[in-house]
């Protein structure tokens, strides 16, 4: 049995019942070392398999190999395993190898939803998720999605917004967005949400401090109706009040 | 204290720790009657306030009024309270009334994420959420968003896909989508996900049976790389395997 478990962005508080149960029931826990640290207290008596960033394919192959031996394995993803996480890669590899193992994907709270709750209610109308990581999706494709999302006035959730290798991409993204949205558009920033040093900030595109943003930050760009009240970011659903 | 609680789509399994705690700690539970039924066993000894569909503004006003009296109140939303839920309306009303109450939004697993986990891994690349309910957003705006999302090849999650009043909107949406996406594009359907009679189905736009879809269904339309393997819907993240 191979569970693919989304553990949420960090805090045990926003982990689901099912995720906790799957980890408890598993003999072997596989995951990126940073995420295993988050659930350290749940790992006693269990075998753990971890590696570093960019080792995703090898990590998933190991998890499948162990599950094929008949062990109960939990593959850990941060947030939700199906959103830029490990669920897709596991299923792709299982298909390719024609591996006969039982698989269950266990959903979790993804970072944008956790950040949104802390920031107010920015996702109350139609929204997009776009990852600015151009390792696996060409920057040209990502740019075309940012353009389309801004033009149709979606609320935009940017994942992996600013890497040390490509810090300029976020500014490029904002330059595309401001072709259509005002630079007074509300922006919410959630950094290390549900972790020890979490910070949230509500600002505007114009006032954005790019230096504050890194890869553990979620950037939420509002639509034209999004406003700030009591330091919270609110996108109206459209009720008449 | 007013907690705005996302209870997930149904099953207690995918409720978060924090949501359960907030409900336990609350003296008064407010919510749409269908959602209160889901947590019926948690309501013993508590005051409940509920009403029917379309009574959202009144329901939120009541919750605020009770919280202002100093009671601990939980306002219940299905899925995540910040995604087409009650978080935005509560914050809008609190701002308008200038109500001095403490508010905490507690995130939950939204229906698309729960459906995606059951269907495979459809949301592994950039995606949009669009509600087809035109009560509060003009159909023209919704159509422009569907057009933009399809053109830029987002995976598209359709909420409220087919009402009895406006059953034709889903077909209209698919007609826009097939201007850009092939009618062989994979579609995942999650109906009553995490509830008693849940069903999932992986199909294509061409093979879609509109009659099967209602307001408690989530429709996930893949991107051009989405494929079916072992009856699961997989959108590749882009790893070379």
Automatic annotation (TrEMBL), chains A, B:
A Gene Ontology biological process term: cobalamin biosynthetic process
Which CDD domains does this entry report, sorted A to Z?
Precorrin_3B_C17_MT
Q: In which pathway does it act?
A: Cofactor biosynthesis; adenosylcobalamin biosynthesis
Task: Tell me which UniProt keywords the record has, alphabetically.
Answer: Cobalamin biosynthesis, Methyltransferase, S-adenosyl-L-methionine, Transferase
List the Gene Ontology MF annotations in alphabetical order.
Answer: methyltransferase activity
Describe the location of the Tetrapyrrole methylase domain by residue ranges: 1-208
Gene3D superfamilies named among the record's database cross-references: Cobalt-precorrin-4 Transmethylase, Domain 1, Methyltransferase, Cobalt-precorrin-4 Transmethylase, Domain 2
Q: Which Pfam families match?
A: TP_methylase
* Superkingdom to which the source organism belongs: Bacteria
Name the InterPro entries for this protein.
Answer: 4pyrrol_Mease, 4pyrrol_Methylase_sf, 4pyrrole_Mease_sub1, 4pyrrole_Mease_sub2, Cbl_synth_CobJ/CibH_dom, Precorrin_MeTrfase
Return the PANTHER family for the record: COBALT-FACTOR III C(17)-METHYLTRANSFERASE-RELATED (PTHR47036)
Q: What name is this protein filed under?
A: Precorrin-3B C17-methyltransferase
UniProt source species: Pediococcus claussenii (strain ATCC BAA-344 / DSM 14800 / JCM 18046 / KCTC 3811 / LMG 21948 / P06)
Gene name of the record: cbiH
